């Protein structure tokens, strides 16, 4: 724990907090309470947790979501035995739109996640720069802070990939996903490299569905199939800004059949890795922006 003075500086009167409004507000209030108990300024805390003073201030007032690695550093700094990590797990759900919260809850419980993506790289395996470029395209009028909030939310979802134990993840990517560029050649090259690394691991499989396959039943959107711990299966269909959770057995079975047909026609993980590498080696002007 740290116990530092304010170095003689006179601080402005802090904004009143409202910890009862949400888990995110409670996170900020607890952070301020422990910081003041340790007699630390935001500037001194910045040097410990490696987050800017302005960002820490916005986290305290719940104007910004904590980055994924901050809770662990706060627990270490204040000796709080995982309190901030527990609060973060609750707050993380609140930064996603309501229609996705149920999906997130099920995703966290799933032992197997299978996804078909027809246009963009699935959120669970996006790089930070790719996600940022995607959100900038989606809403050109969004502020920098709003974009960073969305990026933080996207990256926080990926924590489940390193859970103990992690879920098994199987992805089918339409060739268009790999050829449609977001963020420019360097961003896409890093994103493609990440996909290569995931093509075949103990818990991940990535397969490409080439253009030559032609049309198919899932071409209009994105489908996620989740198998829960007790064997129950649910499906989630997503369009540009909406998502639909499917729990009816007959409907989920139909989506499962469509997914299995695509998997049978997709490239093997080994051929997928070679295909992605060939795109990485191609001149950048061969990618569509």
UniProtKB/TrEMBL annotation:
It comes from the Bacteria. GO terms for molecular function: DNA binding. Residues 30-85 form the HTH cro/C1-type domain. InterPro entries: Cro/C1-type_HTH, DUF5753, Lambda_DNA-bd_dom_sf. It holds the Pfam family DUF5753. This is Transcriptional regulator. It comes from Streptomyces antimycoticus.
